[in-house]
Amino acid sequence: MKKKIITLTLIAALSASATTAFAAPVPRESAPMDATEAQIQITENIIGDILDEVQAGNLGYTLAAGYANTKIRKAVMANQTDGNGYGILSPIAQNAIRIMRDRQLRPDAYAQAEEELKVLLADVITAVQNGMDMDAATKEAYAKIYQSVNPNFNYDEQFSLDTCYRDIPAVGMEKFTVARKLLLEAQQ
């Protein structure tokens, strides 16, 4: 009997450590711009198992997002989030799930975007490597992406207008995600 209990305890401990050791991380480029590394880590700890399932293709966005929201809400209610609320942890989770799922469904679009943006944003990437502020670099990268579709696009002018008057070129979200990824890699 004692041997069974020890065996079951060891199996449970190994299972728990195996799940957390290989949990899929939140893609840093998917996190909201104002999210801190600590908040991203908390979100990873809460929904790592869900991210694993999304990455493996076992969960789609809607179901994964629902599970994540429930787990985050429960963690916040149980005071297990170091004072961070649902209002920041949920968007981190939602964005991570959306990006992971989109990458899984459209890997070619992300690969193509990365190749194009390495060239288009080469000067911004170099500037970040030399210490350029990340907010300024992101704004400049986004402006270049919009101008690659419409060379006459004026970022400051359009974003100063009320949202109903803006004339912004249509650009796939993969370009902005990959741009942030490249800039974050350059920052490190």
A few lines on this structure:
With 188 residues, the protein is an all-alpha fold. The protein has helices at 2-21, 37-55, 61-77, 86-105, 107-120, 122-129, 134-149, 155-160, 173-187.
Task: Tell me about this structure.
The chain is an all-alpha fold and 188 residues long. The protein is built from 9 helices and no strands. It is globular and about 50 Å long. It starts with a helix and ends with a helix.
Structural classification: mainly alpha
Report the sheet with the most strands, covering strand number, pairing sense and barrel closure: none
- What percent of residues adopt helix (DSSP H or I)? over 70%
User: Residue-averaged pLDDT, rounded?
Assistant: 90
Order of SSEs: HHHHHHHHH
The overall strand count is 0
User: In DSSP terms, counting alpha (H) and pi (I) runs of 4 or more, how many helices?
Assistant: 9
Give the N-terminus to C-terminus distance in angstroms: 53 Å
Globally, the shape reads globular
Low-confidence stretches: 12-21
| Rg value | 20 Å
As a percent range, the share of strand residues is under 5%
Defining traits:
188 residues, 72% helix, 9 helices, mainly alpha, globular
